[in-house]
Amino acid sequence: MQSRTRIWTEVDYERDGKQVDWLHLPHSVTRSAYGTIAIPVAVVKNGEGPTALFTAGNHGDEYEGQVAICNLIRELRAETIRGRVIMIPALNLPAALAGTRVSPIDGGNLNRSFPGSPDGTVTQQIAHYVDSVLFPMADLFHDFHSGGGSLAYLPFASTHEGPDKEVNARGMAALRNFAAPVSLHWRQGADPRYSPGAAMKRGVAALGGEFGGGGSLNRAGLAFAEEGLIRHLRFLGILPGGAPEPRPTRMMEVPDQACFVYAPDAGVFEPATEIGDGVRKGDLCGRVHFVDDPARPPVSVFFKRDGIVVCQRHPARCERGDCVAHLALDVD
Amino acid sequence: MQSRTRIWTEVDYERDGKQVDWLHLPHSVTRSAYGTIAIPVAVVKNGEGPTALFTAGNHGDEYEGQVAICNLIRELRAETIRGRVIMIPALNLPAALAGTRVSPIDGGNLNRSFPGSPDGTVTQQIAHYVDSVLFPMADLFHDFHSGGGSLAYLPFASTHEGPDKEVNARGMAALRNFAAPVSLHWRQGADPRYSPGAAMKRGVAALGGEFGGGGSLNRAGLAFAEEGLIRHLRFLGILPGGAPEPRPTRMMEVPDQACFVYAPDAGVFEPATEIGDGVRKGDLCGRVHFVDDPARPPVSVFFKRDGIVVCQRHPARCERGDCVAHLALDVD
Amino acid sequence: MQSRTRIWTEVDYERDGKQVDWLHLPHSVTRSAYGTIAIPVAVVKNGEGPTALFTAGNHGDEYEGQVAICNLIRELRAETIRGRVIMIPALNLPAALAGTRVSPIDGGNLNRSFPGSPDGTVTQQIAHYVDSVLFPMADLFHDFHSGGGSLAYLPFASTHEGPDKEVNARGMAALRNFAAPVSLHWRQGADPRYSPGAAMKRGVAALGGEFGGGGSLNRAGLAFAEEGLIRHLRFLGILPGGAPEPRPTRMMEVPDQACFVYAPDAGVFEPATEIGDGVRKGDLCGRVHFVDDPARPPVSVFFKRDGIVVCQRHPARCERGDCVAHLALDVD
Amino acid sequence: MQSRTRIWTEVDYERDGKQVDWLHLPHSVTRSAYGTIAIPVAVVKNGEGPTALFTAGNHGDEYEGQVAICNLIRELRAETIRGRVIMIPALNLPAALAGTRVSPIDGGNLNRSFPGSPDGTVTQQIAHYVDSVLFPMADLFHDFHSGGGSLAYLPFASTHEGPDKEVNARGMAALRNFAAPVSLHWRQGADPRYSPGAAMKRGVAALGGEFGGGGSLNRAGLAFAEEGLIRHLRFLGILPGGAPEPRPTRMMEVPDQACFVYAPDAGVFEPATEIGDGVRKGDLCGRVHFVDDPARPPVSVFFKRDGIVVCQRHPARCERGDCVAHLALDVD
Amino acid sequence: MQSRTRIWTEVDYERDGKQVDWLHLPHSVTRSAYGTIAIPVAVVKNGEGPTALFTAGNHGDEYEGQVAICNLIRELRAETIRGRVIMIPALNLPAALAGTRVSPIDGGNLNRSFPGSPDGTVTQQIAHYVDSVLFPMADLFHDFHSGGGSLAYLPFASTHEGPDKEVNARGMAALRNFAAPVSLHWRQGADPRYSPGAAMKRGVAALGGEFGGGGSLNRAGLAFAEEGLIRHLRFLGILPGGAPEPRPTRMMEVPDQACFVYAPDAGVFEPATEIGDGVRKGDLCGRVHFVDDPARPPVSVFFKRDGIVVCQRHPARCERGDCVAHLALDVD
Amino acid sequence: MQSRTRIWTEVDYERDGKQVDWLHLPHSVTRSAYGTIAIPVAVVKNGEGPTALFTAGNHGDEYEGQVAICNLIRELRAETIRGRVIMIPALNLPAALAGTRVSPIDGGNLNRSFPGSPDGTVTQQIAHYVDSVLFPMADLFHDFHSGGGSLAYLPFASTHEGPDKEVNARGMAALRNFAAPVSLHWRQGADPRYSPGAAMKRGVAALGGEFGGGGSLNRAGLAFAEEGLIRHLRFLGILPGGAPEPRPTRMMEVPDQACFVYAPDAGVFEPATEIGDGVRKGDLCGRVHFVDDPARPPVSVFFKRDGIVVCQRHPARCERGDCVAHLALDVD
To answer: What ipTM goes with this model?
Structure first.
């Protein structure tokens, strides 16, 4: 028997108009015996039509989507739309308030927790609600990410390649319409522990993307996130005016695990490249320095294939095994 | 009675040759009753001549100087110099290993702890050693900083304006010789709790500077830190070849407290500018968003004078009272 | 295959006489490789007869039952009884010693952990022992609670409405015999994650109740808990003298979720009522004040139905989503 | 040389009108290199006249004064007053936001930290600002306390007996005018580490008082705190209408250390009295129960003199050495 | 459907030669979004032949095996062997680096976590990898333990008695060949949550043993661990020279739970015996002293059967329920 | 002005008879606003005569003295003595209850905190009480130590060489009378931050000693501590029977800093010697192994002079700079 979510809300997803309220996740702890975690949610609805589901704050230290969705919540008016827009700007609320990737309550990484569980940890309960309550309502799902505190990224929107070609095709169409400066196709398959993979298992076209990184707010990434949200709504017919003009995007892909480079020791990592650089197999990726033992020579690490550097570790201090860079390839 | 440092070392500052060893700061705790904190130090000496003192890792999350000094320690050969170079790449070692601004042991901010105390906290003992043992040996002191994890900076070298004009003049000459792309003059007086202010009280020409920020390693900042270290040694006559060619630098200053802007509430800060932008008094500096309460409008904050944005808060999440930006002015 | 509890004890539940000993829950950790958590248990038995199971300290910050059961353990003599009394005054021992609702070891809320698991966390193992070893022995189960550190309560004994009418009837009879000044009937169904719900699934008549709150010890609640324990034993025939004289009790119920009011923001909550007050739908429940930003007006929250205030948040500081009050209704 | 406070504010204490802003205490830490702690302050001024200084949140878990002062800040209008009112509702802001007695930053108890230090810990810097900047402006100082999370109190206003009779007399006059239901005279001398003692050393009439306790908000205590604030302003002539009508108050005193009773062991404390009870020397004060070892008899503790119970420990769990009760005496 | 391990490595278990590299366990957290935990692994292989699997650091505070295996990794040359040796010196790497029994990441006790789970906690993922990837390759498995920080041990090698007689016999033969000064036979059955029990379920002959304890490195234990490793390799024919000369060992067993003694209260435990002593049922095992309450007499605890003391609690401070000693018996 | 201790007690040091009570150190914190730390103290007095002061638990993880003094407290009868014995078995009570060297409250190492301060941290207040209240009463002071959790020791009693020859002579006489199997003379001067150094500044003959180590309870060390306490009392004439028979002791000394060896890197330290071994300058002291990187060769460290190994680091894991061994020399 599949038990049901314990999360409740005063929001009525079927009511016309704009509602901005909270999802209440019961969390009975010493400081609050009948406490709930209040996750903000907004629904704007007008009559029949498709449903768009926009989320951010899946990881708490990724900010462009949080701000873009907050702005959209305040600006969108029910009168001007047809259909429904569900928006959650701070999905893993405890992490968003702490500015951390994982939940400070249970250490959970929400984007490794799908499809979740109604009786699991706080993070698993959030995943379960999205998966069991929201995905079934949605026609398009876009979960906005960035590199978070630990990774700097060349900003892009993305889609994953899942097992269902029809779902893949709808996702790719949405990605091309969104038309970020860079669009990335993750070839390694849609891991169902991630929100897009979970949505695609439910048949929902799903996008992601890294709109910045380093724990900062990327103003360019925010700008095209906001623009892209409007393009989504026009593309779906929720906002009037018809599908947006096509716009070019640089299409890239991450073909395999050899794109990733890991720190060979703990210390201070000095990168040998900048984000956006093209590299060849065997090129120096960077060096780890030992500042507590300066007579010890630094240790070098090299790229394992050709590609474009789209991601680098942001904090200079690293532990052995940290990803320090990854590559992508242009799709011709 | 002024008690003496409890820090000991097997390094002999008067011995010719290269020594790379550790300062031992006794730290008797549960995990090690007779423990010491082993702070790396290097001395390269050859005969008589001036003494340069280079430090980094005063704040543990500032990396360009840590790497530049480690590289110099390994590369510098006693045979090629005249005089002495003392180098400490990770001055607040516990903070450097933790990648934090302040010490994980005592919470101490080393750059607010001068002149320190021989019986105080670990951080105060480090300050006291530098102040009472190393400053008296030095002709030039350069402490390499960056914005750390919380601030992004337009990289520059800097000097403070202290009460002694002759010391100020020597500092300004060293700054011009160092010739970073940007040089900054802190007009607010040399606070003696900071390492440069403490050195200047001892009559030592003292430089600082922010060579990057955000908790990352700035490759351009590292490059001119390394170049500048060599320029210092040639300028002092420690390395042969005579004083370096003069080189232009953009000279800036921070005239007053009105240059600084603070967050008006806790939330996600969206900056309205990029580092390097020129702004006018009353221009929007940024907005604080409330992602847990998206119906609440963001709060704006404005610049209080004209200037160039040389510093911005790096992490998007802020608390009320955090510095979110500061300005500098070109010195014509 | 259902694995068995790993908890062992030198207590023999079938032996006549009084035994006061410990349940040993193996807990292999750094500070004690072969450690056990020693949960106190007492068994008083004399010949054949019914079994009463009394527990407290399910939540560690709820004290009336802990003291009442300790007193009963010391005072009860095997010679005077017929049947068996099993008493555990500090069921979630780590929480009881820490004075916290949830376990300091695993964060577990024991009263959301039934039926537990023999290989789960410490808290889940305790739940599993009670459910699989003790409930099958019991004719009556009474788990003594209070509001804990976060809630102040009008003291009462209570029973839940479960799916089995015969079990419900036995519970209601025990509740009326217990005859607390107030008796409360939870209408929302017996959640099997709670101890009474789990006991009722096993066919055991089960009572609960809130005998005080605020993290303090309520002397009146303690007095009627102690009196009620004796009434239970006489009612079951374990103590001689026959069933106690009937005694009036104010019978109340909590009909629905609209009885509960939640904090609309984080801050200092000023209640508008006292416990015991009667209120109408729309009455002010209280206001949240922002002491870090005193120019910001407080936010009000209102009752959503008529009722009697039986519970209020005890600590003034609250987070958004905390329960700040709940209502009950008099029956007939 | 006495160094000066590093706390700055945009408030101008000499400007007419109402200003609600923040004191900025520089706090340079990893999460914010140029951070400040923003402590709210309000000044309402109109022309010449006396200055009243009202503070709360000296201990963060004491709430009546925090709310009363916030309300006064919003309600007071400069046009209606003569003189000046300075109000700080959350003096130890980090403790107030955490709901703790002591600062979560440095563990400091602000009310044991006067006269403070401009270069000390955060808590010491707050004390120093109040002592060196605000006390010299004030004619009357009232610091609102309660029992906090650990003590329940019979609410009262209070004054301390200091070495200066004239200052004592002004304090006693203000106490009688404030006219709380109970007024308490601390006979043990004004400890200058406490805010009232420090103010009295500066010649300022100073009141305190415990307006509730247990970490809750006492509605009766709040009501007479609010009333008393208005009575203060009329008494000083800051608000018009002349001195308030005299009103009776029950005057009590705490004559000596024998009034205090301490827990003889760690465990669950069961009090034998209620607040307000009269007791005789040798009466039972309470018992400590050992819920982890229920066969061990509880340990009793007794009153050491006659008196009225005005204070009891609120949380039932105690450690050996905790104050579990204290007495006061009626002054006839 | 059984999902597969997410741990990857560049080691090829089928390749001839010596490889020393890392297992990468993906661990996506705030400080490293694409981080991995890098667990060292070495494989030495030459042609066909049996496979020996040697592990240590299953508990991080047990050191003899960690050092013995590191030494073997550096010394073993592929040319001299026939078959394969797989060595992991720090299996629960996070615990080994922290010097703790359980993982500092998830609190997991690896030796209670078999067979593990590919999607579980970090510790469960390590167990799953060993169980699902390594055990199927192995002919002999030896996991080196000691008493860790909390227990002092008479050093020995050991085997467990499992349900499969043939596997038991191979284990006993390996134990006799290993020929530690003491060999111990755990009679209570091979718990499959422990690594040897899990290996035996897979049909792998499995040894354990306690080579020291107290959190220290036992030089004698290290010596016979190193010797025993070579004896294993010769016994299996992986190293040339034929099976080693038989050597006497003192064979002991732990027959039942009555061998174990537990602390009767929290305090300072004073043992009445030394490790190696023979005791009789009823002999004093030790006393718990109450140093915070010295008037309270110490509490004594006694042995429950005859035997040899092979294990004692190492730290003097104990909690009620800690194992303070256990016995073994000579097998004649 | 020297302020006075805030510590109070109901013990009367001038009263005849046996008193076992507590010193109350006021500690006002969130969990107890009027809390005190209750440090046990015992005074046994009969008429006029000398005063012996015995303390243990100065470091909380050192146990022989704690138990020896508790036993003496219970066994000593006032009728049998002449003079006074003051005994504190757990001087740094918070550390003793936590089993840590330093205080869990303030991190203070009591034996680096003399002469302390009446308004300082908890640890400093304890030091100040001993120094200002107890030392002035004492004729002989013995503070019992061991190696604690981090160091294993060859047990001995010891005295320090201070500047006052007469005090030194009395200490040496007491050391010879105490007649431990080994007696050690610290030549480096009596550091007044240590309890013996502080006592000697007050003119009190003062002994120390390491009666065991490793965080365990050394039964042999306990035995001669208990015997020595009686010898002290007979030597002083407090117990009857005259001065004890002289008894041989092995007299050793620690002449200089070259006796100490420090870890050259972080890792697992494998000692090359056992405690009690004689070594020569240049002999191998041990090796640091890198279990996370087993291909990296271990780093060796050597003795810097001849001597006897009297102390070794107990836990195998070390950080660079930890003391791993120290030597002493026989005094012929």
So the answer is: 0.96
* Nearest-CA distance A119 → chain F (Å): 33
Q: Do F40 and E269 touch (CB under 8 A)?
A: no
pTM of the predicted model as reported, rounded to 2 decimal places: 0.96
Measured at the alpha carbon of residue C212, what is the angle toward residues C211 and C214, in degrees to the nearest 5? 150
Say which CATH class E260-330 falls into: mainly beta
Look at strands F151-153 and A205-210 and give their pairing: unpaired
Residue D1: per-residue pLDDT: 38
Q: Name subunits touching A (3+ CB pairs < 8 A).
A: B, C, E, F
Estimate the crossing angle of helix A64-75 against helix A219-235, to 10 degrees: 50
Please name the chains neighbouring F, where neighbouring means 3+ C-beta pairs under 8 angstroms. A, B, D, E
Q: Residue E53 has what pLDDT?
A: 98
Residue A207's DSSP bridge partners are A142
Q: SS3 of A168, please?
A: helix
Q: Identify the closest residue of chain C to A25 by CA–CA distance.
A: C321
Closest CA to D152 of D313, D272, D303, D279: D313
* CATH label, D8-254, candidates 3.40.630.10, 3.40.390.30, 3.40.50.1240, 3.40.1130.10: 3.40.630.10
Interchain contact, D36 vs B150, CB within 8 Å: no
Contact E103, E66 (CB under 8 A): no
Give pLDDT < 50 ranges for chain E: 1
Query: Do residues F20 and F13 lie in contact, with contact meaning Cβ atoms separated by under 8 Å?
Result: no
Contact D86, D229 (CB under 8 A): no
In this structure, chain F runs to a length of 332
> Encoding tokens for residue D94?
């980090």
Report residue C235: phi and psi, to 5°. -60, -40
Kindly determine whether residue A297 and residue B74, on different chains, have CB atoms separated by under 8 Å: yes
Determine the 3-state secondary structure of D44 from DSSP. strand
- Residue D85 · residue D100 · CB < 8 Å: no
Residue of A nearest to F319 (CA): A292
Alpha-carbon gap, residue C236 to C10, rounded angstroms: 27
- Domain C258-330 in CATH 2.40.50.100? The answer is yes
C80 DSSP 8-state letter: G
Which of D102, D151, D320 comes nearest F29 by C-beta?
Answer: D102
CA distance F53 to F238: 12
By the 8 A CB rule, do B315 and B254 touch? no
pLDDT digits (tens, 9 = 90+) for F220-247: 999 999 999 999 999 999 999 999 999 9
- Chain C residues within 8 A of E326 when measuring between CB atoms: 34
DSSP D51-120: EEEEEE-SSTT--HHHHHHHHHHHH--GGG-SEEEEEES-SSHHHHHHT-SS-TTT---GGG-TT--TTS
Domain ranges of chain C: 8-254, 258-330
Residues 6 or more apart in contact with residue D11 via CB below 8 angstroms: D19, D21, D23, D41, D43
pLDDT tens-place string over residues B1-42: 356 999 999 999 999 999 999 999 999 999 999 999 999 999
Smallest Cβ–Cβ distance between E35 and the set A111, A112, A323 belongs to A323
At F291, the amino acid letter reads V
**CATH (residue range F257-330):** 2.40.50.100
**Least CB-CB distance to F30: which of D102, D260, D313?**
D102
Q: Across F180-295, where does the E strand assignment appear?
A: 182-186, 205-210, 250-254, 260-262, 267-271, 278-279, 284-289
Three-state secondary structure call for residue A97: helix
Q: How far is CA A297 from the centre of its chain?
A: 38
Asked if residues F106 and F171 have their Cβ atoms less than 8 Å apart, the reply is no
Rounded Cα–Cα distance for residues D121 and D111 (Å): 14
CA end-to-end span of chain F: 49
Residues of chain D whose beta carbon is less than 8 angstroms from a beta carbon of chain E are 265, 292-293, 320
What's the pLDDT tens digit per position in D313-326? 999 999 999 999 99
Tokens of E98: 């922290």
